[in-house]
Amino acid sequence: MSLDNRYYKLKIIRSKRKTIAIQIASSDEVVVRSPYRMSMVDIERFIDKHKLWIEKNLSKMKELEAAQKKERKYTEAEIRELAEAACRVIPERVRYYAPIVGVDYGNITIRNQKTRWGSCTAAGNLNFNVAIMRAPLEIMDYVVVHELCHRLHMNHSKVYWKEVERVMPEYKKYEKWLKEHVYMIKSFT
Asked: Which of 29, 52, 121, 177 could form a disulfide with 25 if both were Cys (CB 3.0 to 4.6 A apart)?
């Protein structure tokens, strides 16, 4: 394999999946997920073909990890204060966007989640991460719309994304912001 992996671990996971994919797990680990049937030669070829993408995203991950280390942890009192604000602001944003999306919803819960900005249950309950209170309003609105659209489609299909785009045409910009600022969640946990 011509991919220089002296600076990171390369992990190959085979499963029943139909396609091959690369994931940057951390600044020093690259995970390749491939179908059982794919040969090592084809896997190596795929990795080689995506070498520049891997290097670019490893570099981004290093920057994110550095930013995360600089991010101070919030105190319990600060988290409680943000949660109280979230309990006022987020339901208001949900009430505004629900008719635009064309859905109803159940309970709204504010949590100190470790990995997600928000989630939607099959029963229509919406959960939001308290960390979203540190994001700009348009980002918070995007998370609200994202979860409300799950009331129409409990997946991330093309039809789902079309619905998100109908309400928020610039959603990709907001998605990018969330990915680049995921370290903010860690400062709360």
From this structure: 29
